[in-house]
Design goal:
43% of the residues are buried. With 232 residues, the protein is an alpha+beta fold. The longest helix is centred in the first third of the chain and has 24 residues. It has a single domain, classed as 4-Layer Sandwich (Glutamine Phosphoribosylpyrophosphate, subunit 1, domain 1). It contains six helices and twelve strands.
Length: 232
């Protein structure tokens, strides 16, 4: 076999291994939730960071502000996911400086999709939710590590998503307000922490509406924990 042939074969094998690794990472660890409401968007995540069976961090930040009107939840490889967030922040800031207005949520999700799709042969191990509010209303998009983009009204991702979906499918109602939706998002995450070993420790919740981005305080989260306390 020629040198070029061996190189192509090695590249193909490496790409296949990356795909297998990406596929495995997709379904292990974390729970993230997103809900579109009549007056905005709610995002929520747990805070446990795992490395195989090892809990690497108990208060990892998986819910990140991108701009005043846009936020993301991340899952997968931490470095890859953080790089995706930083890149989107760069483009949002550049857009605001050039255009004098904030980027739309749909455009931001498309930037992420383009970034991940262009790296599909050596993919970023990252599955993200992009949510926010613009002049057209609240939007929520799921973008996987190959750049596939899907608009959602509500969604749960990660290994705890089957538990979270059990709560969301039963209780989410299209058109509900953020005031009613953020306790539901918290309930979905808290339920996942009790039934999924890779989800746990604590949770973060953020509300995006016409007033901008706001995360729940520790006091507010403590009240939600008490509200959904159970003996199970």
């Amino acid at each position: 076999m020629s040198v070029l042939g061996r190189f192509v074969g090695m590249s193909r094998d490496f790409s296949e291994e990356r795909r297998k690794t990406a596929g495995a990472a997709m379904y292990h660890g974390t729970t993230t939730v997103g809900l579109v409401c009549s007056d905005g968007v709610v995002l929520a995540t747990d805070t446990r960071v795992t490395a195989g069976g090892f809990i690497a961090h108990k208060r990892g930040k998986k819910l990140l502000k991108v701009d005043e009107n846009i936020a993301m939840t991340i899952s997968g490889g931490v470095a890859d996911a953080q790089n995706v967030v930083d890149t989107l922040r760069y483009y949002c800031n550049l857009y605001r400086m050039e255009k004098g207005r904030m980027m739309s949520v749909k455009a931001a999700a498309q930037v992420v999709s383009n970034m991940l799709f262009s790296s599909r042969y050596y993919p970023y191990i990252a599955d993200v939710l992009v949510g926010g509010v613009d002049k057209t209303g609240g939007w929520l998009f799921n973008v996987d590590f190959f750049g596939s983009i899907n608009q959602e009204k509500f969604i749960a991702t990660g290994s705890g998503s089957p538990v979270a979906y059990g709560i969301l499918e039963a209780e989410f109602k299209e058109g509900m307000t953020t005031a009613k939706a953020y306790p539901l998002a918290a309930k979905a995450i808290i339920s996942a922490t009790r039934r999924n070993v890779a989800t746990g420790d604590h949770f973060d919740v953020a509300i995006l509406d016409e007033e901008g981005f706001r995360e729940l305080t520790e006091a507010e989260k403590d009240r939600l924990l008490a509200q959904f306390a159970t003996n199970n």
